[in-house]
UniProtKB/TrEMBL annotation:
Keywords: Aminotransferase, Decarboxylase, Lyase, Pyridoxal phosphate, Transferase. Its cofactor is pyridoxal 5'-phosphate. Pfam families: Pyridoxal_deC. This is Aspartate aminotransferase family protein. It comes from Streptomyces venezuelae.
Length: 462
């Protein structure tokens, strides 16, 4: 064994204590450090060391060279994208995921895939889905949407008497995928799956909304020869708008289509009694995307995909090798996603669900919603800003009241970045900004700091 590796093995408990100390220091500093550090000149890449100094030296180098350049994305005022943090229990689960280093795809190994199935069952219950839905962990919303649409592709083949999994996507002929305000990952998935970005047809939305117009969707379905795929949205990125899932589901009485629902973070509305109606109809989906490193507050990368057609899922992703587990009626996880290997992502989710239960996660959801409303109200009161859409759930979509150019908004973001991080968008043809609340640490005090920083930045650029 390499001399330095052997030395680290002998001191492993001490090294883990040092790492724990570094982690505790980083988390304790979240409130005080810049949310996004100021951009400096790019670092020159160091050469790979030939003879290095072991874990101690690596930890020292990381803390000196890289840690100061990392954003405080685990903290309460990182409001860009839709980024959660990691609850204490999720952090513990993620550390133990690395400790046990399971590839939980096969029944030939230990109980990892059983733990994943238990966690999927808890999530199914959390979101109000029936037992008709089976689920699997994947890396994020893009992979969840891709997996769901891969199953939809096979369903189209079933309707047409071919198997794209065997014969290729070309066997389907032209395909139409209908959606009102699809996330960018949908077009990416269609490209990956060989269906093509041009198969995506955007259907008109309701006036002033991002929710699809059900009447327009029915007209589009009537104009579609043969079976189609509909991608519904349960929480759009810009304004957290929800399609009427029940109305869309009712269209299947007259039209033949697969219903895939992108509920990456909107599914969590089901946890709040005040907002659960927004998620009505989720269970009718043929496939469903939920991203867990958003509002469940588990570390990247973690998402889940659900489907009612596990048989088609296995037809797409089955993997034949003597060293893998069987396909059968209850296929091993290796037969259900694009990955032959994945870490035991479910453990962090299992930990946080086991530690805090439905009530604990409901509190996070409802507190974040209240924080979004408070920021929306503060920005409405500030003459420098205007809201581009109502605050429906946990995202505030806003812009400058005067001259909202991309350049001025970028300057505002940069001026406020030490205190609050928001991301750019375009809504209704107007350049704007999004503040998304999904972190378990965020409080009303953070909202006040964020509003103050945004207001000061607006005056600075003026």
């Amino acid at each position: 064994m390499d001399r330095m590796l052997a030395a680290d093995l002998a001191r492993l408990p001490e090294l883990l204590d040092a790492t724990r100390g570094a982690a505790a220091d980083a988390l304790a500093a979240l409130d005080a450090r810049p949310v996004v550090p100021p951009a400096g000149k790019p670092h020159d890449c160091e050469p790979l060391p030939e003879h290095a100094g072991g874990t101690d030296a690596a930890l020292t180098a990381f803390r000196a060279r890289w840690e100061p350049r990392l954003s405080a994305s685990a903290g309460p005022r990182y409001l860009g994208f839709v980024t959660g943090g990691a609850t204490p229990a999720a952090l513990a689960g993620d550390w133990l995921t690395a400790v046990h280093d399971q590839n939980s795809n096969s029944a030939l190994d230990g109980g990892g895939q059983d733990l994943e199935r238990e966690t999927v069952g808890w999530l199914r219950e959390l979101f109000g889905l029936s037992a008709a839905h089976s689920g699997s962990f994947v890396s994020g919303a893009t992979m969840s949407n891709t997996t769901g649409l891969a199953i939809a592709r096979e369903w189209l083949g079933e309707r047409l008497g071919v198997s794209p999994a065997d014969d290729g996507a070309g066997a389907l002929g032209p395909v139409r995928v209908l959606s009102g305000a699809p996330h960018s990952s949908i077009a990416k998935a269609l490209s990956v799956l060989g269906l093509g970005r041009n198969s995506l047809v955007q259907v008109p939305t309701l006036p002033g909304r991002e929710a699809v117009d059900p009447a327009a969707l029915e007209r589009a379905l009537a104009d579609t020869p043969g079976p189609a795929v509909v991608v519904a949205n349960a929480g759009t990125v810009n304004t957290v708008d929800f399609d009427d899932l029940r109305a869309i589901g009712a269209l299947r009485e007259r039209h033949d289509f697969w219903l895939h629902t992108d509920a990456a973070f909107g599914a969590f509305a089901a946890l709040s009694p005040e907002h659960a109606h927004l998620a009505d109809g989720l269970d009718a989906s043929d496939s469903l995307c939920v991203d867990l490193h958003k509002w469940l507050n588990v570390p990247y990368d973690s998402a889940v995909q659900f489907t009612r057609r596990r048989d088609l899922q296995a037809r797409v992703f089955q993997n034949s090798a003597a060293y893998l587990g069987p396909l059968g009626d209850h296929p091993d996880l290796v037969h259900l996603t694009p990955e032959n290997s994945h870490r035991l992502r479910a453990l962090a989710a299992w930990f946080t669900l086991r530690a805090y239960g439905r009530q604990g996660h409901r509190e996070i959801v409802e507190r974040d919603i209240a924080c979004a409303r408070a920021l929306g109200a503060a920005l409405e009161e500030d003459p420098a800003f205007t809201l581009l859409a109502p605050v429906r759930l946990n995202v505030v979509c806003f812009t400058l009241a005067e001259a909202p150019t991309p350049e001025r908004l970028a300057a505002l973001r940069e001026a406020a970045a030490a205190e609050v991080f928001v991301t750019p968008t375009v809504y209704g043809g107007t350049a704007g900004l999004r503040a998304a609340f999904s972190n378990w640490r965020t409080t009303q005090a953070d909202v006040r700091r964020a509003a103050k920083a945004l207001g000061a930045a607006a005056r600075e650029i003026a």
